[in-house]
């Protein structure tokens, strides 16, 4: 039977998990906290009951009731109205649950935006510490959500860590000018080898880095001790009892995990303040002149925004759904073209997909911004946008994993952590959920069966993948059907957490290899496409920026072969290349997977030109129509083969095709079942627009005979003579 213990937080001591040698909790109001590893400061009961103002000036006291159920503490609130009080701003200390995590039922408001440790707006030179165990554990690594390298003790470790003999460790951030600090978010050390995190800390402020004052506890007037982490990854937010205006902020670890060292990753919440004396240059606020909706949109808001864009530009937009998520949310696509809803002969189809990982939110917002921008600029007569919409059909899928996004959105941009919301509601990583077509292709190549027995393109789905009990997410099935329905030529899959463009293959050819250079036959095209996006992205081209985590991709032009980075079996990029005509790359848009809303204008500016320029690359290569000589109708599923490139594409149902190629001369062959093949030279230049390369195919005598017999017609004399000659040659 469950044992329940009810106690009011104002009168009973808190009970927390035993991280140290004793199961004790220290009162936040104590004048000092003994630095015993594993001891955790308790929430001050008086702080837990600070009044929060209502709209009419009546304060509401939140009396917290603790229900302890087998060491698991559940927080409940009961509102109690008190007498009206003068309107004042109450800033209660927001504390975590005893498990060190925020209550998932409530979305915490962080007040001021992040200073920019995670997004790299804060440079390494602004971070200092009392000591560091090594360069790889220096203060420049104390950034929220920073990821370590695979090797322990290298230059890219996953936190700031003080030396073990440091008796008064501190981590310091220089804001560069007077700033209103309102809160702190912390994590422990990211490592596959060690567990280290801070369990409590104090906060100090300074204007000159010499004279310091602390954040005070309202009830006792003593320095406040803030509860920190109970695991290495969950972000824990503490709002200051009273915001402080200063230039410098210090975090002073008081206790940490027993047997470990004081290690932390942090983000500082801070608002800019005006300087009446103009002693400090005001920091340039990131922004954009485009009149767009720069905020994060949950599912309901996303639908509303897409509807508004359609109502504003009904002649060039169409909204449709390709399926539903596991939770039943529709996967909406915005189509943008001068003839929405129909495939025009000779007009290529392109797509952007975002939100495959629900917590990587920037791609979702960029596509919502892109559809607004295309609509506005088309109405303004922007010639570049007009040409895009008249020469191609653009499909924008802002949220492939809406279930995961809703989880991440509910937590908030700074508190979602590195992985929460990544998977769909079945705990499936959608970027590992597509059919592995690489393995059967490579096995057939090793046996010498490609392309005569096994094709080098449009590989069929494996039998196991089509079974009813196959582990295939509904989101994945919907996208596969979408790929088959529309003859896509070019795509990009928008992710977050790094600044790099990766291209296929994503899976290593050597089984079980963690990383290995594994290029496709179209490596030159994929490198071109990747370089175009990376070269047009402002953040990637910033030579002064530091690497996001543990790899410096700038030394290779901010592009990398996916398998040479880390192997990803079942990726959407590889599947698109091997199962359809579509060439697709992955764009890692930002170090911060879920940037704060105030960073969205700058992120849009970083990516706006890259998004447009990448779409324009669909004009690179050759394009044309394969027709029947007799009927002059297009031939569907004709194969377009380029000499020297062991990967073919096929024509769409109208006989039109697009073959992406880098500049050069190519011998191209068009073939179709029942027709004589035709080969011709096609030249691709650096000039805009695909080189027209059309084909007219003649039916073979056997095919003509089949069609005549099927129609019940007599065989013409010339065809009868040709068939007799063919029989004589065989004899």
Describe the structure in your own words:
- Residues 90-112 are annotated as: Disordered.
- Residues 1-20 form the signal peptide.
- With 731 residues, the chain is of the alpha+beta class.
- It has 3 domains: 124-272, Galactose-binding domain-like (Jelly Rolls, Sandwich), CATH 2.60.120.260; 299-619, Aminopeptidase (3-Layer(aba) Sandwich), CATH 3.40.630; 622-699, Immunoglobulin-like, CATH 2.60.40.
- Helix content is 19%, strand content 26%.
- Strands 7, 8, 9, 10, 11, 12, 13 and 14 form an 8-stranded antiparallel β-sheet that branches.
- Strand 4 (52-53) and strand 5 form a beta hairpin.
- Helix 1 packs parallel to helix 2 (362-380) and helix 7 (523-536) runs antiparallel to helix 10.
- It starts with a strand and ends with a helix.
Summarize the structure.
The active site is at residue 588. This protein has 731 residues and is of the alpha+beta class.
Secondary structure: elements and pairs:
Layout: E1 4-8, E2 25-26, E3 40-41, E4 52-53, E5 58-69, E6 72-84, E7 127-129, E8 160-161, E9 171-187, E10 198-206, E11 212-214, E12 226-227, E13 236-256, E14 263-272, H1 299-312, E15 317-324, E16 330-336, E17 349-354, H2 362-380, H3 383-391, E18 393-397, H4 402-411, H5 438-446, H6 474-485, E19 488-495, E20 500-503, H7 523-536, E21 559-561, H8 562-565, H9 572-579, E22 583-588, H10 600-616, E23 622-628, E24 639-642, E25 649-650, E26 656-659, E27 664-671, E28 678-684, E29 691-692, E30 695-697, H11 701-711, H12 717-730
Helix pairs in contact: 1-2, 2-10, 7-10
